[in-house]
Amino acid sequence: MILPKRWSRIPRVAFLGTAVWLLGGGWEPQEIGSTPRWTTTRVSHTTGTDPALDDPEAILTRAGYVGDFSCGRRGCHGDVVALEINGGEWTRYARNDPHAHAYDTLDSSRSQRIFHAWNHTANRPYQRGDCLGCHALPEAPVDLSPEAHRSWFGGGIGCESCHGPARNWLVPHARPQHKDHERFKPRPLHPARLQAESCLGCHVGDATRQVDHDLIAAGHPRLHFDFAGDRHDWPTHWRPTLDQDRRPLRDAVVGRLVALDAALNLLMARADSTNPRWPELSEYNCFSCHTNLAGLPAFTLSLSDRTKSRRRPGQLDWGSWYASSLLWDAETTFLDVEETLKALREQMESDDPNPDAIRGHVREARSAIANLLKTMDADPFGTSFDSVALIRDHLNQARRLLDPGQAQGDRIRARDWDRLARLYLNLATLGDDARATSRVIAVEDAADLESLLDRLVEFLAFPQGYDSPRVSPLPPRADAPAGPN
Predict the structure, then answer these.
(1) What torsion do the CA atoms of 292, 294, 295, 300 make, to the nearest 10 degrees?
(2) pTM for this one?
(3) Are 300 and 415 in contact (CB under 8 A)?
(4) CA-to-CA distance for 262 and 171, rounded, in angstroms?
(5) Residue 466 clears pLDDT 60, i.e. is over it
(6) How would you class 337 by CB atoms within 10 Å of its CB: exposed for 0-12, middle for 13-18, buried for 19 or more?
(7) Nearest CA among 467, 469, 471 for reference residue 222
(8) CA angle at residue 41 from 37 to 43, to 5 degrees?
(9) Residues 91, 79: contact at Cβ < 8 Å?
(10) What's the domain of life for this entry (predicted)?
(11) Nearest Cα residue to 1 out of 456, 319, 442
(12) Residue 54, Cβ density class (10 Å: 0-12 exposed, 13-18 middle, ≥19 buried)
């Protein structure tokens, strides 16, 4: 089965990472052979002597950056007519990937509105390092002229943003005698764990780059990173042979584990005792507060443990995305991680979260994640996961949730949107995995998979003109009898 694009079917308020899509007003992939939107990228070769120390560009050259155009030359990775990816990686990326327009979005009218609502002291987003850190480079200096900024960063998230500063390996990495020497190679981005980890600084955040509640309130999209969903939707610019042994289910689980670890690392930084704003509201489920208050049910469905749970009025839901159940019906695999998260969740959802206690719980959880990742590194093909059994379990979960006749009643609180979106992504990934591994799915399960994905999208859709879900009746089953007139 060929599954549809995932995040494109879910409301874009859940877009993960930097706002390259939303703030730019959308992007359209271009055909190979057309002209890229942007062509100016600075080439700054070092000559052995440091630039003047008062030159802002010296920050970049001393860090080893040379500019993306050095990669995008016709004889290197910039072949404009290449039918195969080898030789045309830069061209394909520049034309088809929204990351290539990350810097451009800072000049959009929506970005300007967000920026001025968030910060009234600076004139432009490119004067803020916390904007440039994800829309250009982490080391991007803020005091360059607009022309220099465009020259250096017009290519958005360029080659060196992910592959690392190229000065030391730019020339040697193309020579056969150096191809296996780690010193003369770009930063490795395969296997999938390394690729996912390269995304985390911007798509989850860290101590120096984060999207907090103030920025979200100003209009910036909240950060929801799902490695498997993104990787499925966005165009590749690397050789297909690098993915020939890819196991979609394993990649999804590893992606969620490293994202959870990054989210916990960010929480650790936010829990610093010198932080005047605590707790940071973006740690919690946005829809705990941002929801229609009319007709709220007495209970909310907890998808992580499949039980109804009563929350006190005003109690916020922590970790509804990154710390929610990693993969239902695989609890034995993630038991140690889930156990450490319980104590952390209790502390974060208390009336007065204690930063010292939270830092201790975070250290325990990150240790459990590290141990689990070591175990998974020893199983590169994900043989411990049975996608067919997991599909059946997830389908049963979806059927139960979307059946209005079930005992939980005919309404689900809006704060369950995150977990329902996770269920959707789980089902899509499991279907991909079964296809990639040639697993045989029962005929009734295969038919239900597509229909339940469609129904989940229907339920996850936001009302027109809103960027949050409503509290609404569950969509009726297709075979449900018509009600009385």
Answers:
(1) 40
(2) 0.81
(3) yes
(4) 33
(5) yes
(6) buried
(7) 467
(8) 160
(9) yes
(10) Bacteria
(11) 442
(12) exposed
